């Protein structure tokens, strides 16, 4: 989850202090003295000019961005539900650099690498899961920028974030997601950048975007046998199997495109967008085999969908109001009746969420969210109701100057289905962070959280940032 507060690090504070000292020194020297002699005044003016030059030379220059920036992190998790097992022993490294050319181009590159030692230390997971999740190496944001008057152009692998709710992707329709740990990692880790070309236009209070994603990335959901694989409905006495996911061919006809416009008026930040894409989220087509033995065969695929939506933000001083809504057309959903050839039916939906973010003087933050999915042309045999509603409560507080506590509760209003996530962050040294927490799920097997009711875990993380 992403904090709304940012603090200067030690180097930033030192640079700010030195700059202020130099400014105060110059101001003191430049204060006029009471003198009547013109020659003395000229000499004093010359001395003041020398002092200004000396102060400018003595002030520390900003550190050039020519070194690697990133972090190294070790993550350890143990699933405590039966059967208890070690579920993660991952080393994660992210590093990159950026700069600017003499021609005015800005550039950035970033690499993400991870290796999970749990697959060497245990034999709990099947072979397909071990192959899928043992190691990874991917580009993070890697792009070039160019400013042309009111236009900013960016080409390359980039994050395009059109919405930002806690624990949910409502208006954030462009991002692909790393979901092999459900929605549990920080969103900075969850989001997968897209290879895209984006043009942004700025004029007064207006901000516009044109976006083309010729080679889309898709959600990573893992393999059957993984802790958070999205298993599909089963039938009693009928075997269930999964074929490999069908991802759209890499051709321009399967690319994505969209546009977004926003305006800031009287403190209200309003935006609307349209996005046409191959859905980053998979749907599972079903095949029913009757002979020689009954079997359900599922295979993940991706639909061509259209989405239109918007967002609203307003800072009222005592709290920040946020709202997002998206209409989706073309996405398919699983239907329970066995006579449906693919087990899927098209369903048009509206997803919306409203949040209040309330800061307190005691360095405590309270976030309240309400959300709902409405299925407009609901088929009577799909699992979700016509209206699926829920809420979440997040409390984050500084317990000591170095220890921060946080607890997130998210639940359905339509069934007894919930998730609880307490954690502590300890910044024990500069650039170092230690985290300990737990993830607890409860609900029916078809619930959004309850499907992982046997995946409760405790975890810890150790991160060094550089």
Description of the molecule:
The protein is mainly beta. It has a domain at 11-60. Helices cover 12% and strands 50% of the residues. Helix 1 (10-30) runs antiparallel to helix 2 (38-58). It is globular and about 70 Å long. Residues 1-65 have low confidence and may be disordered.
Any descriptors?
466 residues, mainly beta, 50% strand
Would you summarize the structure shown here?
The protein is mostly beta strands.
Radius of gyration: 27 Å
Proportion of helical residues: 10-25%
Instruction: Characterize the overall form.
Output: globular
Q: Label the structural class.
A: mainly beta
How many helices? The count is 5
Instruction: Give the biggest sheet.
Output: 18 strands, antiparallel, barrel
What fraction of the residues are assigned to beta strands by DSSP?
Answer: over 45%
Q: Which residue ranges are poorly predicted, with pLDDT under 50 across at least 5 consecutive positions? A: 1-65
Number of strands: 27
Give the N-to-C terminal Cα separation: 20 Å
| Overall average residue pLDDT | 88
């Amino acid at each position: 989850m992403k904090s709304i507060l940012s603090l200067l690090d030690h180097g930033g504070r030192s640079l700010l202090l030195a700059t202020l000292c130099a400014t105060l020194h110059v101001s003191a020297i430049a204060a006029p003295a009471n003198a009547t002699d013109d020659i003395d005044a000229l000499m004093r003016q010359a001395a003041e000019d020398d002092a200004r030059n000396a102060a400018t030379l003595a002030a520390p220059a900003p550190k050039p961005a020519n070194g690697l920036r990133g972090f190294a992190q070790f993550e350890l998790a143990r699933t405590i539900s039966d059967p208890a097992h070690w579920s993660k022993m991952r080393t994660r490294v992210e590093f990159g650099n950026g700069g600017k050319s003499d021609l005015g181009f800005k550039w950035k590159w970033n690499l993400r690498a991870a290796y999970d030692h749990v697959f060497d230390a245990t034999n709990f997971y099947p072979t397909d899961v071990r192959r899928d999740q043992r190691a990874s190496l991917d580009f993070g944001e890697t792009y070039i920028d160019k400013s042309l008057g009111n236009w900013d152009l960016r080409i390359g692998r980039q994050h395009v974030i059109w919405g930002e709710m806690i624990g949910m992707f409502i208006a954030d329709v462009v991002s692909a997601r790393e979901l092999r740990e459900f929605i549990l990692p920080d969103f900075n880790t969850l989001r997968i950048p897209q290879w895209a070309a984006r043009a942004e236009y700025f004029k007064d209070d207006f901000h516009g975007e044109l976006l083309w994603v010729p080679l889309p990335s898709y959600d990573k959901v893992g393999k059957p046998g993984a802790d958070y694989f999205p298993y599909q409905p089963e039938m009693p006495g009928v075997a269930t199997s999964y074929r490999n996911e069908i991802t759209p061919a890499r051709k321009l006809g399967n690319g994505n495109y969209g546009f977004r416009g926003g305006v800031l008026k009287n403190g209200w930040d309003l935006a609307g967008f349209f996005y046409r894409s191959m859905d980053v989220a998979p749907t599972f087509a079903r095949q029913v085999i009757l002979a020689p033995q009954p079997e359900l065969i599922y295979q993940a695929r991706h639909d061509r969908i259209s989405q239109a939506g918007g967002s609203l933000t307003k800072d009222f001083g005592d709290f920040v109001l946020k709202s997002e809504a998206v209409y989706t057309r073309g996405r398919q959903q699983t239907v329970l009746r066995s006579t449906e050839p693919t087990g899927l039916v098209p369903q048009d939906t509206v997803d919306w969420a409203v949040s209040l973010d309330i800061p307190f003087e005691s360095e405590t933050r309270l976030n309240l969210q309400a959300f709902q999915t409405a299925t407009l042309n609901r088929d009577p045999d799909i699992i979700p109701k016509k209206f699926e509603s829920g809420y979440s409560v997040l409390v984050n507080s500084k317990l000591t100057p170095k220890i921060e506590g946080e607890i997130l509760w998210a639940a359905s209003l339509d069934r007894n289905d919930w998730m609880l996530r307490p954690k502590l962050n300890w910044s024990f040294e500069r650039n170092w962070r230690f985290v300990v927490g737990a993830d607890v799920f409860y609900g029916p097997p078809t619930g959004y959280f309850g499907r992982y009711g046997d995946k409760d875990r405790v975890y810890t993380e150790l991160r060094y940032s550089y």
